[in-house]
Structure prediction request, 315 residues.
Amino acid sequence: MKWIEAKVVIDYSLYQDMDIAISLVSDIYYDLGLNGVTVESPEYEPDIDWAPDAVEMPEHYSVMGYFSKNEQLAENRRSLESALSRINEKNGIITRLIYSDVDEEDWAESWKKFFYPRRISDRFVIKPTWQAYKAAPEEEVLEIDPGMAFGTGTHPTTRLCIQLMELYFKPGDSFLDVGTGSGILMIAADRLGAARMTGTDKDPDAVAIAMENLAQNAIAPDKYRVLTGNLNAKVSARFDIIAANILAEVILPFIREIPALLSPNGIFICSGIIGDKRQWIADELAKQHLTIYEVRTEEDWVAFAAGLKKTPRGV
Prediction:
C-alpha cells in the first residue's frame, strides 16, 4: 500500500510549551481519522543502549501522520493545512509541513532506526523483534513489531498505563484493551496473569499486527480475541481491568460506557491524556460515578485508575 507521510515541524524557538503544541497537532490527525502519530524530539535520550544501526537524533520537534494514497488524500491534505493555520492564528504555533511518499515496507523499516529495547518499569522491557536483548533475572521482555500500527510501548502514555496495570492486576483477571494498536497492553496483561483478553481497534491492519505480536510472544490463541470495530464494538461481557491508551478526545465519550463493561470490583485505566485535558477526564469520571483511585504523570502526560467502588480492591 502507498502512503503519504505528513510531517509537521514545530518552531520551538517561537512556542515554548512543546507538550501542548504536540498535543494540538496530534489532535488534528485524530480528527482526520488517523489511529496514531509519530513524534520526533531532539531532547529524548534512551535509558538503554541506543540501537547500533540507529540514525542521528532529529534536529526539530515534529509530529508525523500517515495518509493512505487514495481518493480522500486531497481532502485530507486541505483539512490538515486548514487546521494548522487555525492553531497558528489561535495559539501562535508556527509549523512547517512536509509531504513525502512512503511505501508500507519503507515505513516499517524506518521504525527500526528509532525503536530499541526500553525498560518501562521494574518488571518489563519492551524489545523490537529484530534486536537481541539479554534480560536480567527480574525482567520480562515484551517483543513488538509495530508495523503500521500505533504503539511501540516506549511513549510515556504506554509506560504509565502498564505501570498502573502492574499495580492493580490480579492473576485470573479478565482484560479489555480499547484501541489495542500493536497489542502491547494485551501482551503485558498476559504476563500479569490475565485469564481472558479482548482487544478492539477500528483499523483492520492494527488488528492483524496485534495478532502477529500476540503470537510472537507465545500467547495461547484460545486466551484472547482481537476485534475490528469502534472501541468496544461487539463487546458485551464485563471485565476486571479495562485499559484505554488513546487520546483524551476518544476516552471522554467512552467513559460513559465503562459502568456497563466494568466488573463491580474492576479497574478502569486510561492514559494518553495531555495535562491541559486532565480535568475533562476527571469530571467525566465523576459524572459516571467512577472513583479516581490514582493519578500518575510523566512529562505532561496523565493516566488515571478508577473504579465503581469507593476504594480499590487490595493492591
About this structure: Residues 73-91 form the longest helix (19 residues). Residues 46-55 have pLDDT under 50 and may be disordered. Residues 117 and 240 are 30 Å apart (CA to CA). The chain is about 30% helix and 30% strand.
